[in-house]
Amino acid sequence: MSTVYDCTTPDSREQGLAAAAGIVRAGGLVVLPTDTVYGIGADAFDANAVRALLAAKGRGPDMPVPVLVGSWSTVDGLVMSVPQQARTLIEAFWPGGLSLVLPQAPSLNWDLGETRGTVNLRMPLHPVALDLLREVGPMAVSSANRSGQAPASSVAEAREQLGDSVQVYLDGGPSGEPVASTIVDLTQGAPRILREGAVSRAELSEVLGVDLGADW
């Protein structure tokens, strides 16, 4: 059985965060609100939990799971190196709707799917998500929906699709119009936009001081 916690009230939010942290540490799955859409999350370093996440979504390892972090400094321990362009983007847009693809640290013992030695990182702009991430550390988080279905913008939508495959649902209220994060690949030197979403191409170009035209 899964449990829903109303995180819009202080007492229930505290109970929900404690329950979610316990479930994540035990290798279970939680649904949490983010600043884009609701996400389904697991301990990023628990391979079995990540496989359970993919199974809950009906998705294979060919679509690896992104990682959410609770602070800027966490990134340094997860990647091989943080280039200046990445730091510039982090300072400008984190927490927020920007995901960065970087070469992962070779020492990391995790299995996020077929990442080809990279990791997709983001720091979400949502207090409930940040509180949980700061409690349990980096989490593998994907949109809270079955593969091929619309992303969930509420706990009700997430629960309808994922049901009891998730142990704890943290209800932060409706997310509003679901907008995916923008994804920028920084693994090849020059930045490349893989998906334009919450952060526009123009905003990225202005911050980096380069024209990220359609050919990038």
From TrEMBL:
Reaction catalysis annotation: L-threonine + hydrogencarbonate + ATP = L-threonylcarbamoyladenylate + diphosphate + H2O
Alphabetical list of InterPro entries matching this protein: DHBP_synth_RibB-like_a/b_dom, Sua5-like_dom, TC-AMP_synthase_SUA5
Residues spanning the signal sequence: none
Entry superkingdom: Bacteria
EC number: 2.7.7.87
Domain YrdC-like: 14-199
Compartments where found: Cytoplasm
GO molecular function: ATP binding; double-stranded RNA binding; L-threonylcarbamoyladenylate synthase; tRNA binding
GO terms (BP aspect): regulation of translational fidelity; tRNA processing
GO cellular component: cytoplasm
PROSITE patterns assigned: YRDC
Chief site of localization: cytoplasm
Keywords: ATP-binding, Cytoplasm, Nucleotide-binding, Nucleotidyltransferase, Transferase, tRNA processing
Pfam families: Sua5_yciO_yrdC (PF01300)
Similarity comment text for this entry: Belongs to the SUA5 family.
This protein's name: L-threonylcarbamoyladenylate synthase
Source species: Saccharopolyspora hordei
